[in-house]
Structure formats: structure tokens, C-alpha cells
Amino acid sequence: MKWRVRGRAWQPEAVLSGDQIAGFLADGYVAVRGAIPGPVIAACQDMIWAELEGREVRRDDPATWTAPVVRIPCPEGGPFAAAATLPVLRDACDQLIGPGRWWRRDGVGGTIPVRFPSEADPGDAGWHIEASYEEAGQQRVSAGSRARGLLALYLLTDVEPDGAPTRLRPGSHRDVPRILAAAGDSGMEWLPAAQQAARASARRPTALATGRAGDVFLCHPFLVHAASWPHRGRSPRMIAQPAVALHGQYALRAAPGETPPPVQQAILDSLAPAG
User: Fold this and answer.
1) Given a cut of 90, is residue 128 above it in pLDDT?
2) pLDDT tens-digit profile of 51-61?
3) DSSP letter for each residue of 54-66
4) Tell me: the pLDDT tens digits for 101-116?
5) What is the DSSP letter of 106?
6) Among candidate residues 15, 153, 33, the one with its CA nearest the CA of residue 88
7) pTM of the full predicted structure?
8) Which secondary structure element, helix H or strand E, spans residue 24, and what is its range?
9) In what helix (H) or strand (E) does residue 139 lie, and over which residues does it extend?
10) How many distinct helices (H) and strands (E) make up the chain?
């Protein structure tokens, strides 16, 4: 975190600038470039390869890279704990979700899809939003984004345009709240919600989550996104994609005098009457 003088005292400067917050409200995501130091990234890669080698996928033998994608649970502890607890990311999450509103997990969590150079369809590249919570064994999502504050994309390798980057639909997070609000507090089953979100956002442009290893994209929970293929790069692409868990859910009306955090504000703006 940077510091600057305000009045006569040194106070912390926000990680995300006003322009970045405005971009998040408009587009549904923000990239925190260079968030994770190089040595931490290298140690994370070593742990991922150790897991892959247990599946007979070896770092030094491209002949073993036979599947277009191999998913592994994100390893716990060590460099992944270091990556998840960096002040720059925690402060950015505070800005977007609201201080005290999210679970400060001592690890990254989620899964890591490792995508290998391949022309084959990986079978998981459809446009969708993420599920937020489980109820009675069913994945669901609600307009208040129950249990999910953000989707994070940790770039653990460099990701080039031809290297199977995650595709994003800027502005698509504004298409989703009205779909979900019609279902009330109980929300919707995830699959029909994801399908409707994909159709509603089909007119949106496509952006690519590219960058250097150590960059982290923080995405609105309702941002419509998809994997891409084919992977025509030379190296495996590694991205961790955890949820940032929200305590409870957001109200669909702001309290008098309240300044909603950007994730909630985007939902409220989307539900506001036109004009």
C-alpha cells in the first residue's frame, strides 16, 4: 500500500484509483497488475507441477500434455497463502466489497484449470456466470449475490491472447440483476440463470484477461465470462479462479445516507428504473 499526506498526517492511499473504481462499475472487472511477487509465483507453479506430476503430467515432457485442460484443487498453504493474504489484494477487496463484508481466507481456494497447447475443444468454454451458494444440493445465485463478493482470476503464468485467456463481456454484470431479481430472495438455480445471462449479454463486446504472471483480475460476481480455445501458445496456462466469499448478501435498496460499495452499487444501478 502507498501512503500520502492528508492534512498533517500520513494516511494510506487507496489501492484502486477513482478511475479504476469507475471502470469496475462500468465494465465489471479491474486488473491489479503485478499484485503477486515473482518468487511467490514461481513457488506456486512448482506446487502445481507437483500436483500434475501425480497425474503423470510432467513439466519437462510436452508429450504428457495430452488433455486440453486438467483441473486441480488449488493447493493450500505456503506460497498460495502468501498470495491470498497480500495487503494490496485485501485492500482492493475492501474497496470493492466493503470492509468486514467478506471472508479473509488464508489461502486462494477454488480450482486451477491448467490449459495446455491444443486445438481440441476443452468442453468447458461456454459463457456463464458463477454460482454463489448451495441449497438442498443445488447450486444457486441471487440478485443480492448471496455468499459471493467477487470472482478472482489469479494469473499464475503469463497469459497471451493466443494462450487460452479467459474471455470477459464488459458491462455484462449490468444485464444479470434484473434476471435474478424476478426470482425473489430464494434466487435461481445456477444453470438457467447462467444461460439467461449468456443470452442477455450476447450483444456485449469481448475482452481478454491477459497479462503477466502475478496480475489478478477482480470481477463482479455477475460478470459473464468464458474459457477460450484453441490454445495456440507454447506453454501451459495456469489461472486460479476462486470466489471471494461474501458474508450474507447485499440489500437491493441502499439505506438512507449509505454509500454502497462498488459491487452493490453496480447491482443497484442495474435495478434502477430507466431514466
Assistant:
1) yes
2) 999 999 999 99
3) TTT--TT-GGG--
4) 999 999 999 999 999 9
5) S
6) 15
7) 0.93
8) helix 18-27
9) strand 138-141
10) 7, 15
